[in-house]
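Table S2 (continued). Query chain:
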Amino acid sequence: MSSLQMIQEQFPQEILSTHSFRGDDTVIIKPENLRVIAQFLKETPDLDFNFLMDVTAVDYLQAGKKPRFEVVYHFYSLKGNHRLRVKVPVEEKTPEVDTLSDFWPSANWYEREIWDMFGIKFKGHPNLKRILMYEEFKGHPLRKDYPFDKRQPLVGPE
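Corresponding output:
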């Protein structure tokens, strides 16, 4: 049984859609179910997604897609040699999802980067602060509506 089939069987009401293209399996889930599905992916022996390869975000402002944001997780099973992409739609009014840093410690820095660049918060994150920009930086530079010519406060040695 494939990863997608196992997830659909276990969480039929929590899955928004799935697809597979050229061996890349993708599942789109409801945001409120992220932690329970992530735990299932990690702890189910037949899946064993023990490696979080990447977490990123997408801003669909110019594409007009609703909801505006998506957080995208790329999982890999070293034992099973298979991959899975999990997409979580995120509303613009409350851009927030649960942290996965307690399941995969590498999520800590990925989530901080997404917070810094897109302004998406991760509930329960142990240290959600900027990682690339300085603390006084205003806004989130990878948002499609961020003004590219915006002046930022100058910060120097004290």
